[in-house]
Amino acid sequence: MKHINFRELAITCCMVLLSNTVFAQNFSQSVSDSSLKAEQINPLRVNLNQSGSAYFQMTLLNQTWLRYTQNNPGSMRMNQPESETFDIGLRRTRIQFMGFLSARTFIYFQFGQNNFNSLYNSNTPALPYTVSNRKLAAFFHDALCEYKLSKNNALKIGAGLTIMNGLSRFSQPSISSIATMDLPIFLQYSVDQIDEFDRRLALYARGQWGPLDYRFYVSNPFPVTSNGNAPPAAITYTSQFVNPNLFIDKTGRPLSNSPGIGNQYGGFLSYNVFDSETHTTPYMTGTYLGNKKVCNFSAGWVYQKNAMMRLNRLSETLVDTVFEPMLQLGLETFLDVPIQKTKGTAMHVFAGYYATNYGKNYLRFNGIMNPANALIPANYPVSYLSGSAYGNAYPMFGTGEVWYFQWAYVLPKSLLGEPHGQLMPYASTQYARYEGLQGARMWVWNTGMHWLIKGHQAKISLDYQNRPTYYYTDQQIRYDARKGCWVLQYQLFI
User: Would you say 304 and 326 are in contact if contact means Cβ atoms under 8 Å apart?
Assistant: First the structure.
């Protein structure tokens, strides 16, 4: 798309905003309607006993994006060069089913899809484009059973397909309550490589002992050959996830040096200074909007033996295959507190440091709901960038060090008038030093505003992201011009 009709874009955005103003007004009127009675049963919840302690409920969530993107240099969209793109997509569409069948038994399912835009399931740099099916989008994100071994939350044991994770609270996030518009995806460290959209088949224990919140898990990672993309076709001097197909002979028998696929282990410990955090599901809240007073300090880790592979040159003529562990370490602090309850103001602050080890020089470009799907071959050598630096992608994951910070503030109710919701400005930044960038910096920042029409249940968000681009010349990675992206999101959560 060589030209964006900004007049049409502005009209579209205004129509969305106007429709939601009407929604907010109608909602406030319906709530104040005297015909609504407090004793009415939530139509999305079924009580299984008279007290309501045993229940089963359903939730629905949809995040719609309207987006303008300055594409990375050399980007193509279905064989056409595009320097900028306007697109529409569904960032997340989810259905949750959960409930307590008894005081100690909890069941949880989540079904849905992610990153559904016009390129869904055809977003590949390979030519010619293969036959695909855009209808095969939804899948089970979670399916778990959990048993509470104590009367309180001291110890819970669960198993199944779950997001239970180590490293960070954003490795297991509640996507309906994000403080910014989207998550720091780099903390979902192996997303769609050896997991199912950050989920794994796992056995876990979690609980709360006084001020201590803990969770530990062991999981069976998926083979990288099952993620829907072409697996590594050869072992290189740069670390990559193990491809089991590279360790079989011509008859299909495993070689003696095959590492197999080992279990993954992880944990997350958090010390709460004030209130304890919500503990119904394994998901961790993004922001409580002043409904809780939370301050905690956390540490997390993830370890998987022989998860990565690379070549190691022993001499001019001798090369060996090396297997390396994946080890991720994180330290975090989280503050989410009310400021003036009468005015409805609240503040959110998060800061984290992460040591990310995927093996020597590992680097992975990723673009959220990427609006492009290829690079002009003459512009960027596929040998280095793996053909993935198109559209809005940047080096999100890598071996090295990462610092992340986010801030948000809920403004007073009186600013818009209480029936019309509240405004919540925010900002975030990710700074990384990755081995694979050869000393080039990686800095991404976002800023924006939420219109909290009805808290997290109905909100409109306007976000701007600024990211780096790179080029490769004379066997050196060099820093190129920065690019921007505007997103208007409408979230509904019931």
Answer: yes
d(CA 140, CA 96): 10
Helix (H) or strand (E) holding 213: strand 212-220
Q: How far apart are CA 22 and CA 489, in angstroms?
A: 17
74 phi-psi bin (left φ>0, alpha ψ -120 to 50, beta other): left
What does the chain come to in residues? 494
In terms of Cα–Cα distance, which of 90, 121, 89, 69 is closest to 391? 69
**What's the one-letter identity of residue 411?**
L
The answer to whether residues 357 and 372 touch, using CB atoms and an 8 Å cutoff, is no
Strands of 172-211 (E only): list them: 200-209
Q: 275-288: per-residue pLDDT in tens?
A: 999 999 999 999 99
CB distance 35 to 115 below 8 Å: no
Query: Residue 252: CB partners within 8 Å, gap ≥ 6?
Result: none
Distance CA 286, CA 346 (A): 13
Q: What is the DSSP letter of 437?
A: G
pTM of the entire predicted model: 0.89
Residue with tokens 């209130």: 275
CA dihedral 426, 11, 89, 428 (to 10 degrees): -10
Cα first-last separation, the chain: 36
| pLDDT bracket for residue 120 (50, 70, 90) | confident
Domains in the chain (CATH in brackets) are: 6-33+43-493 (2.40.160.10)
Look-up of token digits 């909602």 = 27
Matching residue, tokens 């989207």:
182
CA separation for the pair 455, 453 (Å, rounded):
6
- Whole-angstrom Cα distance, residue 446 to residue 394? 14
